[in-house]
Amino acid sequence: MNKENSPIGIFDSGIGGLTVLKEVRRLLPSEDIVYLGDTAHLPYGTKSSQTIIKLSIANILFLLRMRVKFIIVACNSTSSVALPEIKNFFSLPLLGVVEAGVKAVLEKKVKKIGIIGTPATIKSSTYQKLILKKAKGAKIITQACPLFVSLVEEGWINSKVTEEVAKIYLKRFRGKVELLILGCTHYPLLKGVIRKTLRGVELLDSAEEVAKEARRMLRRANLLRKKNVKGKLSFFLTDYSPNFSKLTKLILKEKITPEIVENV
Ligand code: DGL
C-alpha cells in the first residue's frame, strides 16, 4: 500500500484518548485511524516508570503490526514518562501530547504557567523541563489531580462533587497563572468546571494541540492522504471496559464497537 494511505495509530491507557481521537478525526477526516486503548492496564498515571515504559512499547509494537504510518501518543502519562526514553528506538514518527502542548505554550509567550496531570506526569517533570529549556524565565506551578480521572470515568462532568474537588486542586493557581495546561486525556472534559473555578485563565487543551501538530508533521513528511474519502476507524481495547459506552457517548457522541485484543 502507498504509505500515505496507511492508517494513523493512536494509543492511550484507555478511553480518555478519545478526546485526541475526536480532534484528529475533525482535522484529518480522510485518514484511516487505528485506536488502541489499553484498558486492561488502566490507569497508567499511578504506575511506576518501568511499567509505563513496558506497556507503551507493547502498544507501539501492536500499532506497528497494524502497519500505521505515524503514531500519536494520546496519553500524557506515557508521553511524559516513556516517550523521552523510547522514542528513538523506532523508525516511524511518534508524536506525544506533551511535545505538542509545550510547542503551543511556547508560541503563546506566556510567563506564568500552571500544569495539571496525573501523578506520573507531574512527577516526571517533562512538561516543566521542556518549557524551561526554551522559556528560561517562566514561572511554573504544578498539581497532580488523580481524582479528576475517576470523576470523568463516572461521567460526573458538571456535578457539585467535581466542582468541590476542582476548588481544592486548583486553589494554588488562583491569581498566579495566565495559562493552565490540561495535561491529561480526561481533563478537556472538565473544561467547564475548571473555567468556573479559575476565571480568566486560558486553558490549553493538549488534545487539540496534538491533532494540529500531527497534521503539520504529516504534511511536511508528505504523508497526508490525498484521496477525499471518509476515513475508517478501527478500534481496539485490551479489555472490556464498563465505562466504554458512557464515555464514547460523552466524547464522540457516536456508537463504536470495539474489538478486544488480549495479546498486545
Ligand atoms: N490517559 C492518562 C493520561 O493522559 C489518564 C488515565 C490514566 O491514568 O491512565 O495521563
Structure description:
- There is one protein chain.
- This protein has 264 residues and is α/β, with parallel strands linked by helices.
- It has 2 domains: 3-96 and 208-260, Rossmann fold; 99-206, Rossmann fold.
- It is 43% helix and 17% strand.
- It has 12 helices and 10 strands.
- Strands 4-3-1-2-9-10 form a 6-stranded parallel sheet, with helices on both faces.
- Helix 10 (191-197) links the parallel strand 7 and strand 8.
- The protein is globular and about 55 Å long.
- The structure holds D-glutamic acid (DGL).
- Residues 12-14, 16, 42-45, 75-77, 118, 121, 149, 184-186 line the site of D-glutamic acid.
Tag the structure with descriptive keywords:
four-stranded parallel beta sheet, 264 residues, Rossmann fold, alpha/beta, binds D-glutamic acid
Layout: helices, strands, pairs:
Blueprint (H helix, E strand, L loop, with lengths): L7 E5 L5 H10 L5 E5 L11 H17 L4 E4 L2 H6 L1 H4 L7 E3 H12 L3 E6 L1 H6 L1 H9 L4 E6 L1 H8 L6 H11 L8 E5 L7 H7 L4 E4 H15 L12 E5 L6 H8 L7 E2 L4
Parallel strand pairs: 1-2, 1-3, 2-9, 3-4, 5-6, 5-7, 7-8, 9-10
Bound molecules: D-glutamic acid.
